[in-house]
Each structure stands twice: as C-alpha cells, then as structure tokens.
Amino acid sequence: MPGPPRPPATAPGRAGSTGLSRFLLRRLLLAVPTVLGVTAVVFLTIALIPGDPVTALLGPGAPAESRERLTERLGLGEPLPVQYANWLGHALRLDLGVSISAQRPVTELLLPALGQTLLLTSAAFALVVTGGTLLGTLGALRPHGLPGRISGALNTLAVSAPQYSVALLLIAVFAVWLRWLPAGGTHTVLGAAGPFDQARHLVLPAVAAALVPLGLTARVFRTALGSVLASDLADSLRARGLSRTAVLRHSVHNASPALLTIGGLQLAYLLEGVVFVETLFAWPGVGRLLYDALTARDLPLIQGGVLIVAIAFVALNIAVDAAHALIDPRVRSAR
Questions:
Q1: 7 lies in some domain
Q2: What is the CATH number of the domain that holds 260?
Q3: Closest CA to 182 of 190, 193, 174
C-alpha cells in the first residue's frame, strides 16, 4: 500500500529567504532595547553634568521669575524619570524639541548636519575599503617580500599615527604650504561653489578620518586572505590549472566575510568618531553640532543628536549583519 502523502518540499530559495527574514527580525527586535538603553544612559549622564542650561541661556544675573518660567517651559523642574518619559514620548512622535541655544527645532538642525556627516563618512569609508583591500592583498601575496614589508609598515603607520597630528600635518602641507586643498569648511566663501569645490573640501577630512580604520582593515584582510591562499582550497584550484588571477579571485571571495565584518565595524567607528575631524576641519556635521551643543549645554540638541547617531549606528550594524548572512548562510542559523 502506498504510504501517506509527503508534504511538498520547500524550495531552497524560499527557505533561504525565510531564514534571512527571521534573522533580520531577531536583529530588529534586539535593536529596540539597545537604542532605548543608549538614550537612557545619555539622558542620565547629561543630567548629572555640572551646570545649568537655564543659566547658560539667560545668564547668571537673570531674575528669578524669568528663570522659573524658562525652567517650567523646558520641563526641567520634573523628576528625571518624568523628564525622560516626556522626551521619549515626543521623540516617538518625531518631535525632538527646540534647541535652547539656536531657538530652532532640533530636527531642522540635525537633518542637514546628518547629511554632511553621511557624506564625510561615505567618502572616508570608500578610502578605507579601497586602500585596505589593496594593502591587504599586496601583503598577502608577498608576505615575506618587499611588497609585504611595505604593506606591513604602512599598516603600522596608519594605526599608530596620532590622528590629531596627522590632520594638522595634512593641513600644513596641502593647505598652507602647497595650497592645493582648502583647510576646512564645505565650500569656498568667495567663489563659485559646486560639486567639484565640495569634493576639494572633502579630501583632507576624509583622509584624516580614514587613516586608522584603513590600517586595521588592511591588517585583518591580509590575515584572512593569506589564510585562504595557504589553504587546501587554493592548492586544489592551482592543481586544476587555474591561473594566478583566477585563484586570487576565488580566494578574495572566500575572504570577503572577514572584509565585510571589519568594514562594518570601521563604518560604525567612522560614524561615531568624526566628531574630532568635523571640529578640526570646520565640517558642519552632527559631530561638530554635538560638540557645540555640549559647550552650550543644549540638552534637547544633545539628546536628539545622540538619538540620531544611535539609530544610524544600529541600522548600520543590522545592514552589515544582513549582508554577512546573505553571503554566508551559516550565519542565519546562529543563535
């Protein structure tokens, strides 16, 4: 007698898509408490910083009535948990409040600054991926030869060189001495501003921001690619008569998860670590805006900026995890 009917087999592509969807859903569910935790810690930390935003705004000699009215308007007289709950409720409605120092909605200040930060981060990340891949490949192909030694020396120099000193050196050489590139800002004040002019202003801050991540990326990719080239897989490809270029192409593909992982980490580092670069090169991004807000103790602007950066950081990590899971299906089943 024939056995019971078998259930229809699930197509491999559909099963893979389902596994990827579940993987992303888990990451999204974990992202919510992460963002909330970051905002709560920052809110409490800022509240404990010495200083009074009312005094910073009105001055130390302001009348008591004016101070009370402003304190009530800003909601600073409520307990900290109530202040945080009120701010979070408004943030969920995309209302981040009004900047104390600029007297403008926080979103109007943050959105243009976020665009400039993403532009700078993208340019620096392109340098990191391109330079890290080239230096890592150069070192992996000839690890004990002159190319490998040059690659290792450049990696060490990029990682260990003080970013502040390198940025000042870039300004002194290319902006002051040679006068090839501008020292700061996003466009020329007197002159025709355009894409080419903004690209010239972008070169020095992008190089300064990309220096350390480039060295780390090159070092990790050199190790990963060297391991693949020395593995049985590369030996079997050579035994089949494949050319050196074909073997290298297959090896780079197998080492790409390591490049993707370190690249994602460095992209998040760039997004959070451009505060110094934006301040030094007068780049009007979120980092410089937060620096000015901390100086003025502008609580709504600080809280809104940290929220935007935290969301962007988590979104980048989710995107990197998704790309990693797409390349390596084993990641999707990891718990």
A1: no
A2: 1.10.3720.10
A3: 174
Q: Would you give the end-to-end CA distance of the chain in angstroms?
A: 43
Helices and strands, counts by H and E, the chain: 13, 0
Residue 215, H or E segment:
helix 195-229
Grouping H, G, I as helix, E, B as strand and the rest as coil, residue 202 is helix
> 105 - beta bridge partners?
98
Dihedral angle over CA of 16, 22, 28, 31, nearest 10: -100
**What are the DSSP calls for 292-303, one per residue?**
HHHHHT-HHHHH
98: helix, coil or strand?
A: strand
Q: Within a domain: residue 60? A: no
Cα separation, 308 vs 109, in Å, equals 12
Q: What is the pLDDT along the chain (335 residues), one digit of tens a residue?
A: 444 444 444 444 555 567 667 777 887 888 888 888 888 887 787 777 666 667 666 667 777 777 777 777 767 777 778 888 888 888 888 888 888 777 888 889 988 888 888 888 889 989 988 988 888 888 888 877 777 788 778 777 777 777 777 888 888 888 889 888 888 777 766 555 677 777 888 889 999 888 888 888 888 888 888 888 888 888 888 888 888 888 888 888 888 878 877 887 788 778 776 777 888 888 888 888 888 888 777 888 888 888 888 888 788 777 777 777 776 666 555 54
By three-state DSSP, how is residue 105 classified?
strand
Range of the domain at 33: 26-50+72-331
Residues contacting residue 211 through CB under 8 Å, at least 6 positions apart: 158, 161, 163, 166
Residue type, 41: V
CB 287 within 8 A of CB 278: yes
In a domain, 63, yes or no: no
Residue 15 lies in a domain: no
For the chain, how many structural domains are there in total? 1
pTM for the predicted model, two decimal places: 0.79
